[in-house]
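> agent: user asked for a holo structure of the chain below bound to FAI. Plan: (1) validate sequence alphabet, (2) canonicalize SMILES, (3) run complex prediction with ligand conditioning, (4) return tokens. Step 1... ok. Step 2... ok. Step 3 dispatched.
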Amino acid sequence: MQKKIQSALISVYYKNGLEKIIQLLKENNITIYTTGGTQKFIEDAGVSCVAVESLTGFPSILGGRVKTLHPSVFGGILARREMESDLQEMKQYNIPEIDLVIVDLYPFEETVKSTDDEKTIIEKIDVGGPSMIRAAAKNFANVLVIADKNNYTDLENILSQKNAETSLEERKQFAAKAFDVCSGYDMAISNYFNKTDFLNPFVADKKVLRYGENPHQQASFAGNLDEVFEQLHGKELSYNNLVDVDAAIQLMNEFNSSTITFAIIKHTNVCGIAQSVNVNEAFNAALSGDPESAFGGVLIANASIDKTTADTLNSLFFEVLIAPSFDADALEILQSKKNRILLKTKNSVQQKQMSKTVLNGILSQDFDKGNFAEWKEEGGRNSSPEEKDNLIFANLVCKHLKSNAIAIIKDKQLIGKGCGQTSRVDALRQAIAKATQFNFDLKDSVVASDAFFPFDDCVKIAHEAGVTAFIQPGGSIRDKDSIEYCKANNLVMVITGLRHFKH
Ligand SMILES: NC(=O)c1ncn([C@@H]2O[C@H](COP(=O)(O)O)[C@@H](O)[C@H]2O)c1NC=O
């Protein structure tokens, strides 16, 4: 049903951006009702308006806590124009109809970010604004609601059309958006009161993705990628790219930028990682750990990409390269492939909680932070400084493999990994097979396990392959079997007390 806009209620916190709308309302002879600060802005722009006080018969009271909360305002928004009884009551109480509601809420989230003063924060909980938005959205059959400044251009287009009319479908779409605004606003307030940090899908920019994990799945992303990285080149990031970029960034957050580290991610697992004296060598070592799997992977470095590395990388087919910076000549080389995605990282992502959907509900948990809770040398001898370095590195790499996971490290290079296996011994066998496939000598290598060894079979198999040191959380009722084997064979066994399952 087409509806002509004849009256509007405007109550906005930030006034900028309204200029053209005010002029268009004037041109269309639309009566404007408004609140104090907004009234001044409109009148300064040379447009006359009606103070909401003249509808309510009350001034704004309690320092602005109550100004629009009144039947004369809400009656005008909520009245069902098609219902005779509503219209009669409107007439009886002398309430004018309001056809358009424009609200910009108090900036609650901004205030929380800028101060710790509770009184200031509480005063920025808008009460009248969300109430007007909800009322207008509920009555979308008759009223158009604009609750987001991003929709000002849409409103300008509507007001520029002949008769300033809207369709029912159009009003319903704006109502849906308005309820999103209210939900996001309330969730931000709830996060503040409950001291939680739940991701807010309503306030975040929602990006429709080309498709999901597979082409027949629709997908979207709610978040702010601009805070995480700058895309310097390449095609739009897909759903799978975003998942792998997240895995890559989470992994690289583990490593101090003073040690040059390069990693290759495939389907969220680390398939190559190494530390070295320069980026090019780190990349070569990461790649040679499993050159087969690296094809089409997501690459990440914690140091600037120079020309030498770009030249080496250029021959590899990869989807995404992430780094804190790129030298100009390196960028030129890497941009030679049109679709190749190049991302320059900004701040590290400091998420406190992670969530996923299960059984039609949301499971949330803290991030798995840290490497080891304790360092107990329980084997036949203590680790040498070099072994210790490799064990620390191995444990962090293993943490970023899907469970059950085993990582084999030698000289700060991942030479074998087993992940996503249903038994730990299979994960180990897979890791050894990978290392053997690419001709690595496992002699003096170290093994990390994401969870305890339930039996002594893993340490025996690894030892026979050449491994001399192990790191694992411990906690099995048969820990002593693996420990005894290490003692008997002069092997290092570090117990960390911190399990790193990743499902
Ligand atoms: N309390 C009320 O009745 C009320 N009615 C509207 N507001 C808000 O007041 C602001 C506009 O006020 P002004 O026009 O006075 O600058 C808007 O952000 C609007 O959402 C209110 N403020 C807070 O709840």
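> agent: step 4 complete. Summary for user: Residues 11-13, 35-38, 64-69, 103-106, 126-129 surround FAI (CB under 6 Å). The longest strand covers residues 269-275.
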